[in-house]
Amino acid sequence: MLRFKILASVVPLLAAAVFARGEIGSVSHPCIALGETSVELTSLFWTAGVHVAFTDDLSRATVRVQITDDPDAADFAVVDDGLGSEPDSCQVNPATRLVTIATEPVDGGPVIYLSTDGPADYRIYVRSKSFSQREAAALIVGANGGHRPLPLQAASL
In the record, which residues are listed under signal peptide (predicted)? Predict the structure, then answer.
């Protein structure tokens, strides 16, 4: 009976470890490097330091992000379908900032209004096979910890 109880308690732990390793070790999550810090999207809600949400209602937004067709007009541009990203540009380290996209605002976290016109806190240009416009917006807002824009450094994929 004791063996069965031990087995019953170990199996869920092993399953959780396999699940976590698959998520954390995955390189398929969008990520950008800003200087010594990298910012990565994660689907593990509890590991993220910044939880962003999106809204279609401008009055609920705390951060406005405009999608632009001109990379020169953008504060942040993602173009990754060329020769490839820089090697080792997005290594996970203690300075990595994890960002998750929540369905609803979490604890006063940023609420992003994504549009193609009007005033904006950030302007982004996205031409990518691996980043969506929402993911790029979440990364750029998460890079500032969810606050309104500060001058950004050059970022690499």
Answer: 1-20
Token couple for 68:
């632009």
User: Is residue 34 situated within a structural domain?
Assistant: yes
CA distance 37 to 53: 22
How far from the centroid of its chain's Cα atoms is residue 132's Cα?
11
When pLDDT is averaged across residues 74-79 and rounded to a whole number, the result is: 88
Residue 108, helix vs strand vs coil: coil
Could you count the other beta carbons within 10 Å of the beta carbon of residue 9? 9
Owning domain of residue 75: 30-156
Q: How many structural domains comprise the chain? A: 1
The residues that bridge with 64 in the sheet, in sequence order, are: 113
What is the rounded CA–CA span in Å between residue 75 and residue 149?
10
